[in-house]
Specification:
Elements: E1 4-7, E2 10-14, H1 15-22, H2 26-34, E3 42-43, E4 49-51, H3 53-67, H4 72-84, H5 88-128, H6 156-162
Antiparallel strand pairs: 1-2, 2-4, 3-4
Length: 168
């Protein structure tokens, strides 16, 4: 059973329980502390790190930013800029700019991955016709056989395999 201590209205949990609740390792949580991304509110008499529910929220926030492609170093810089902002409007303007840049980058990544998915689908469609080749056909006949229809362009992902490479 998880060790919990009531302090007023605040329920505190040990680092292991926080790790369990968030799906992180204890080492990851310690790293977040070392980087200044997470601070335990108190230590128990036995020296255990004790966290509030805010610890769970902070770790979920860190994970969400990592899912978006932010490194821990970038998250640390993000927090430093936030903390050093002189006013709330300045802080929020910075957050908007960071999120806007990340949204643009994410949309570019999605477009690139969509193009790659289309190329893979086209290559798989082309390769489905290869199932009708006879076992006696050699690799040198790939991409030049009649199974694909005359004049059909070989997808680059397939053609690149069949293209001979020369060693200088």
């Amino acid at each position: 059973m998880a060790f919990q201590r009531e302090t007023g209205k605040l329920t505190l949990i040990k680092v292991g329980d926080l790790a369990h609740r968030t799906g992180k390792t204890v080492r990851a949580i310690h790293l977040y502390e070392e980087l200044g991304l997470l601070s335990p509110p108190v230590r128990s008499k036995g020296g255990f790190r004790m966290y509030s529910g805010d610890g769970v929220k902070r770790i979920e926030w860190i994970q969400k930013l990592q899912d978006m492609g932010f490194s821990l170093t970038e998250i640390k810089a993000f927090l430093r800029v936030w903390e050093e902002s002189a006013t709330a409007p300045e802080a929020m303007a910075t957050v908007r700019e960071i999120f806007s840049d990340k949204l643009h980058e994410t949309r570019e990544t999605i477009a690139r991955l969509s193009r790659l998915a289309d190329e893979l689908a086209e290559s798989l469609s082309y390769l489905e016709r290869c199932r009708s080749c006879s076992p006696s056909q050699g690799q040198s006949e790939c991409c030049a056989c009649e199974n694909h229809g005359s004049g059909r362009e070989v997808p680059m992902l397939v053609d690149g395999i069949a293209t001979k490479h020369t060693t200088p």
